[in-house]
Design a protein that fits this description.
Layout: E1 13-17, H1 34-49, E2 52-56, H2 75-82, E3 87-89, H3 95-102, E4 109-112, H4 119-123, H5 126-133, E5 139-142, E6 167-169, H6 171-184, E7 191-195, H7 204-210, E8 216-219, H8 224-230, E9 234-235, H9 245-258, E10 261-263, E11 267-271, E12 280-284, E13 287-288, E14 293-297, H10 299-310, E15 314-318, H11 331-345, E16 349-353, H12 355-363, E17 372-373, H13 378-384, H14 390-396
Parallel strand pairs: 1-2, 1-5, 2-4, 3-4, 5-6, 7-8, 7-15, 8-10, 9-13, 15-16, 16-17
Antiparallel strand pairs: 11-12, 11-14
The structure holds adenosine monophosphate (AMP).
Length: 397
């Protein structure tokens, strides 16, 4: 794969697909600049070479042109993060943009308007992709890992209009791909994956692929109850997908055949309602009474998981262990974060991804301890499923 360091951008113009889909408050100020910070190394490398950059991104889910979703709102934050002046152009294709690109000087930064103001972007329309490719840039760089699983015009289709020597992975995209591969395909054994979240159905592909990669598979969160029920346990009113019980049985059988140890909760924090002020009890995972639901893993399970994690050399975590949005049921998720932090300090390689797990790790101040924190949601899940991502494939063809 061609990376940024293979290219000298002196006097060259690079069109970079970034992921500036950042949250804004009611005054249109950026409330979390993580994604802007994540794009900074790529932008700086090109500017420091003596090149200029044209930045393109989507923001939110506008239905056509809508000032609320204009990328002009992020200019102040972008200028602050980069410490440089940013020029904004209120369109993403056409004559006005081409003129702005033509006038761009080395060191210059041009930000285009929200790509999704054109419905063609999400449709992966070839003419729209060609119009972006015709803006006048010498290189196309993709640094938007968060949308690399989408075959959109700016994330994948555009790449066909640049030859192999004129397109490359941005530094963030490269780091994501190599970090995920390091954990998934080159991980030192024992490899442990902790998969949580609400439903089995959203992570079937991930679990099935992980069965070929890991030594230990820890299943927590809402999805654990489908597995517990499949094993004949009473799960009371806990969240369950009855149509996935057979699948859960099949996964457990496959795991046994492949020698993968599956770790399910042995005890649980149960609640009499789905609320932070519910009554709670700790019970064995075999016997949740009717009228009660499991909302977090219990202390024995936390201990069991910690032991497995401390004995692992590679750790992958995606998805919370309970309804962590309620403080009362956040302990399991936080303990997993702490365990991974501790194991990482002792030399394990850890990869954490997914909004909830990343939020837990940040809240606990563990970001520096974790080996790699992925910026991707859906894109990370598809990588964990072993799929080829269109945005990545397009750069290598
Ligand atoms: P996901 O997006 O699939 O990773 O799921 C995350 C959501 O799962 C979070 O909003 C959690 O509150 C929810 N969740 C985790 N454990 C449970 C549980 N035991 N019962 C209901 N929801 C849960």
């Amino acid at each position: 794969m061609k990376t940024l360091n293979d290219i000298n951008f002196k006097n060259k113009k690079a069109l970079i697909r970034v992921d500036f889909n950042v949250p804004l408050n009611e005054n249109f100020q950026v409330t979390d600049n993580t994604r802007i910070l994540a794009a900074k190394p790529t932008i700086e490398k090109i500017l420091n070479d003596g090149g200029s950059v044209i930045l393109m991104s989507h923001l939110g889910r506008p239905k056509g042109k809508d000032a609320k979703f204009s990328l002009k709102h992020i200019v102040p934050e972008l200028e602050k993060v980069l410490g440089r002046k940013v020029e904004f152009v209120p369109d993403s294709i056409g004559h006005q943009v081409q003129e702005a690109v033509k006038n761009l000087k080395p060191g210059g930064i041009l930000l285009l308007e929200n790509l999704r103001f054109y419905p063609e972007e999400k449709k992966g329309d070839a003419n729209f992709a060609k119009a972006l490719a015709d803006l006048g840039a010498d290189y196309y760089i993709n640094d938007a890992f968060g949308t690399a699983h989408r075959a959109h015009a700016s994330t994948a289709v555009i790449a066909q209009y640049f030859d192999r020597d004129h397109k490359a992975f941005g530094q963030l995209l490269e780091k994501e791909v190599t970090s995920i591969q390091k954990a998934l395909d080159e991980g030192q054994k024992p490899v442990t994956a902790i998969i949580g979240g609400a439903k089995v159905s959203s992570k079937i592909g991930v679990i099935e692929n992980l069965l070929n990669k890991v030594d230990n598979l820890i299943i927590v969160g809402g999805m654990a109850y489908t597995f517990l029920k499949a094993l004949g346990n009473k799960i009371g009113d806990s969240i369950v997908e009855d149509d996935k019980i057979d699948l859960a049985k099949k996964i457990l059988k496959e795991a046994a055949e492949k020698g993968v140890k599956v770790i399910l909760p042995v005890d649980l924090v149960i609640a009499d309602k789905f609320s932070n002020d519910a009554q709670t009890k700790i019970v064995s995972a075999t016997d949740i009474p009717d009228g009660w639901q499991g909302l977090d893993i219990g202390p024995k399970t936390r201990q069991l998981i910690d032991t497995v994690i401390q004995n692992s050399k590679t750790i992958i975590w995606n998805g919370p262990a309970g309804v962590f949005e309620f403080d009362k049921f956040a302990t399991g998720t936080e303990n997993i974060g702490l365990s991974i932090g501790k194991a990482s300090e002792k030399g394990a390689y850890s990869l954490v991804g997914g909004g909830d797990s990343v939020a837990a790790v940040k809240k606990l101040g563990l970001t520096d301890k974790i080996s790699y924190i992925s910026t991707g949601g859906g894109a990370l899940l598809e990588m964990l499923e072993g799929k080829q991502l269109p945005g990545i494939a397009a750069l290598t063809h």
